[in-house]
Design goal:
It holds the Pfam family Spectrin. With about 250 residues, the chain is mainly α. It has a single domain, classed as Methane Monooxygenase Hydroxylase, Chain G, domain 1. Helices cover about 85% and strands about 0% of the residues. The chain contains 6 helices and no strands. It has helices at about 1-25, 35-70, 75-135, 140-155, 160-175, 180-240. Helix 1 (about 1-25) packs antiparallel against helix 2 (about 35-70), helix 2 (about 35-70) runs antiparallel to helix 3 and helix 3 runs parallel beside helix 6. The longest helix is centred in the middle third of the chain and has 62 residues, at about 75-135. The protein is rod-shaped.
């Protein structure tokens, strides 16, 4: 009777493992939304806990069969063979579920990381857009144009590391068929805005550089003219002080 019960327990254990494999490992999942992916992660975590909890039952079966083998060697030997198969299948099931759970957790982490980098770069684009708009109505003063140019250039010096991460994380998920529609839409919108604002910012930067150059050249010309007029004023004052007749002056002084 003991042997019959143990044999029944082994069969039930094997049946449970077959069901667990069908439910958690053989189903084809499509993760088209973050909610579906998150639910799959939580389900696989529960599956891992459920499988690992069966370890106690497997150990009890193993101990009981060993004990029976010492008392009834013939029955124990047959059950030991079946036990080895169950133990092997159980270990394989544990490893596969652990692996799938780890993979899904990595995928979820990848998605969260992608959102993080998108948030960072979106904040940078907002800042860039604000700086570009600030260059629209500048007072016609050299200092104001120079400050606006330096401010815009400081934002444009933003490193490309985050965008590289966005591209690589997004491609990894899309290649795996995970959230591909949502990610493609997000990346398309982000890239379009990035290209538009970058080109606008660079065009505005070039315009400010040209404006600044023109203003500096004009200031320099005015300074040279002012110095020349100052020299002429001093020379004419000297002529007047010395009561020199106009016809005695050089032609340019006349």
């Amino acid at each position: 009777e003991k042997a019959v019960n143990l044999k029944k327990d082994l069969a039930e254990m094997q049946e449970w493992m077959t069901q667990a494999e069908e439910e958690y490992l053989e189903k084809d999942f499509e993760y088209k939304s973050p909610e579906e992916l998150e639910n799959a992660v939580e389900e696989m975590k529960r599956a891992k806990e459920d499988v690992l909890q069966k370890e106690v039952r497997v150990k009890i079966l193993k101990d009981n069969i060993k004990m029976l083998a010492t008392k009834v060697p013939s029955s124990g030997q047959d059950l030991a063979t079946e036990l080895n198969v169950v133990l092997e299948n159980y270990q394989l099931l544990c490893n596969r579920i652990r692996g799938k759970c780890h993979t899904l957790e990595e995928v979820w982490s990848c998605w969260i990381e992608l959102l993080h980098y998108l948030d960072l770069e979106t904040a940078w684009l907002n800042n860039l857009e604000e700086r570009v708009q600030m260059t629209g109505n500048l007072p016609d003063k050299l200092d104001a144009v120079n400050d606006a140019l330096e401010s815009l250039e400081s934002v444009l010096r933003h490193p490309a590391d985050n965008r590289t991460q966005i591209r690589e994380l997004g491609q990894t998920l899309i290649d795996g068929g995970i959230l591909d529609d949502i990610i493609s839409e997000k990346l398309e919108a982000f890239n379009a805005r990035y290209e538009e604002l970058s080109h606008l910012a660079v065009s505005r930067q070039i315009a400010l550089e040209q404006q600044l150059q023109t203003m500096r050249e004009t200031d320099h010309m005015l300074q040279v003219l002012q110095e020349s007029l100052g020299d002429l004023d001093r020379q004419l004052t000297s002529y007047l002080t010395d009561r020199i007749d106009a016809f005695q002056m050089p032609q340019e002084a006349q």
